[in-house]
Amino acid sequence: MTCFQHLEANQLKTFARDYMEDSHEFSRVSHFADQVEGDRAAFNLSLRQYRRQNPWLMSNLSGTDRFNRISEWGHTLFYGLRKCPSPPESSPLPSAQYKQIAMVAHMGGSPAQTALLDWLQMDPSQWRLVLQTPGLSLSNGEALQGLTLQDGQAVLLERMPQLE
Hints:
Elements: H1 9-26, H2 38-53, E1 66-72, E2 75-83, E3 100-109, E4 112-113, H3 116-119, E5 127-132, E6 148-149, E7 154-159
Antiparallel strand pairs: 1-2, 2-3, 3-7, 4-6, 5-7
């Protein structure tokens, strides 16, 4: 028996509305603005804009995509490779050249050395850095070799179109 079983429909509606109003008030960014780091907020905005520019990223992984987790020695890393499923009809690029992205993210624990280039058999000369979290200052894909990430740090790359 729950505490809601004896409530009338209008009482449940009132409770639900009050709960939603409390949740809305609690989640207002203005309550936490003084705690937000500017460089982190700028990164988060850039990442959000990137996702909006690439709506295919909201789809489920395809059979050719990779997404892996390494959880060992006191840390957790996620890394992956995604390919746009098919180019838009208006794209001049053949599907083999359409956008591909790779990422690596440290999601908890002690600092960890990464090997994204090896894990995904990537040629660093074919990839460009798109986004990196604050605290990282990588200049190109070559800098990924032996990169050590700390909790919350991540890198996003795009494959450069190949010339025929």
